[in-house]
Amino acid sequence: MIGLKPLKIWFVCGSQHLYGPETLAQVDAQFSEITAALSKDGKLPLEIVQQPVVKSPAEATELAVRANSDPECGGLILWMHTFSPSKMWIRGLSQLNKPFLHLHTQYARELPWDTIDMDYMNLNQAAHGDREAGFIHTRMRLGRKVVAGHWSDPEVHARIDAWMRAARAWDDWQGARFCRFGDNMREVAVTDGDKVAAEMKLGFSVNGYGIMDLVDVMETLADSDVADLAASYENEYNVVDALKKGGDRHDSLLNAARQELGLKTFLEAGGFKGFTDTFEDLHGMETLPGMATQRMMAAGYGFAGEGDWKTVALVRALKVMGHGMSGATSFMEDYTYHMAPGQEQVLGSHMLEICPTIADGKPNIEIHPLGIGGKADPVRMVFNAKLGPALNASLMDMGNRFRLLVNEVTSVEHPDLPKLPVARAVWECKPDFKTALSAWILAGGAHHTAYSNDVTTEMLEDFATMAGIELAVINDDTRLDRFKQDLRTNEIYWHLALGVKA
Ligand code: MN
Question: Stretch 249-268: mean pLDDT, rounded?
Fold first, then answer.
């Protein structure tokens, strides 16, 4: 994955001096044991780094300042092994600008019924120490994830895993640069938005470049480098004969390779993590990049069509969350419906640009005309998507806030599509077609989404908490009447919560 930096999670244990050095030594030893257990096998996506036990206001403040200034610290896991009076955390927590997870656990799993005495009771105090911590977090209106359960429980590990993935994506957005060739597709509303608000709230910047800036780079590339890249396609994919070396349309494959190398060179030089283009601004380009864009997405770049910078950022975030899993995350568009009664499905695709990480098998490389744009025929990868659980996520600018909308879906088998030469996915929506579509429309969800087989609603919930933005979820628990009321309630909550800072 391009541009992924090393990131660590700090594990923090709270206590106080009241217990004396003997008890604190025990706290420290048990804390180390839990750190080692959580780090065992390297199953969690980020490394856990144990911090000194926090026992005073000065230590809590010093911890927060140190976490803020360490670029490798992606967040904190807090746990109060013993009672840690939480007014001592106020100064530190009020400065902390990294996400945190409150792990509500206890060192010992089972109560030693026969031997339990007051010393044991005083050592194993998370049951009320963490309540004291939870109060101050809630009193200070701090967004965080709370995970309750014994630290050996695989379910607890799964909750931490999801949060770490969200934390990595959140850190990845901070200072991220996204490139916009041209402007928005003319007159389209949902793909537009406030880039200043996005940078303030979400941490990434979006800036525009002329498509000729890319053309200039493409023209500097050596023919031999372009030919080498085009040759590599023949090993990696099923390339149709006409595009192969010696085929009568091989020049188009060379052009696709030149677009890919040009994009790679341009985006690397600018330190970008994603880009968008538009078929309405292709001056100097032979055609809209199809395969080149698909290859860039597979390398880890965020992408969305038609100037849709919000979905660019979202695709990148979901790719980062799914890093180390199957890797299957793509730009997607709800394109058309199958409305046969009882078998309703959505056919998702785009003009060209679906990421081959979601491909079921080896993609074909083909060339066909594009109905719009008035340019040469673009080369593209054609494939069906992997089957199984997936989700669509969409980020909208509601004017006073950003809303993240999620629909859980299932990618299903479908008949051959011999006359549709683009990559595609067919899915069924949860809880059902009509409820999902009605809810999506009511929430103002876009036609563009980030689609993933890896990312879960839990990860996106954690991500929305870190970002401090609204989340709306459409899944098996969704009832339309309740969903509509939640949207109305959210209007009030977010209006008050963000106030004039939106
Ligand atoms: Mn589109």
Answer: 98
